[in-house]
Write a structure and sequence with these properties.
6 helices; alpha+beta; about 40% helix; four-stranded mixed beta sheet; about 140 residues
Length: about 140
């Protein structure tokens, strides 16, 4: 499920989108896997996992090495950030919001009372889900 772009000798992508236009601009540099991992704040191994799982892409193989466009990373980060009106909350955020410990917030997620999503090593919950939980408990 990988999306790779084949590269010519001068570094131009040959795969085009459905309208026949190259998906990137010339000002959008290819980053090495180490640079891309640093931009995302993850390890190089986890970046490779994100590419293999199809969450980050398209990317290119240049000389057997993975290269990713900066715009692809920016798009991934925007998707992970989600809706600014409905942000993701960590256990600590949920604990502060509900007035309980972060351990208790984690227990609510582990017991299935709050729907959590794993992002890297963290589990996060949408604020709207916490508000639905509060409504269910109070109403």
């Amino acid at each position: 499920m990988h999306t790779y772009l084949s590269m010519t000798a001068i570094g131009q992508e040959t795969e085009m989108d459905t309208e026949g236009v190259l998906p990137f601009t010339v000002d959008d540099p290819l980053l090495t896997s180490a640079e891309a991992a640093e931009v995302l704040g993850v390890s190089r191994w986890w970046l490779g996992e994100l590419v293999r799982r199809g969450r980050v892409g398209p990317c290119a193989r240049v000389g057997g090495r993975l290269r990713v466009r900066r715009s692809v990373l920016d798009r991934y980060r925007a998707e992970q950030a989600g809706d600014p009106e409905d942000p993701y909350l960590t256990y600590e955020d949920i604990g502060a919001y509900l007035g309980v410990s972060s351990w208790t917030a984690g227990e609510l997620v582990r017991r299935g009372l709050l729907p959590g999503t794993r992002v890297g090593r963290r589990v996060v919950v949408r604020r709207s889900a916490v508000e639905v939980y509060i409504e269910a408990c109070t109403g």
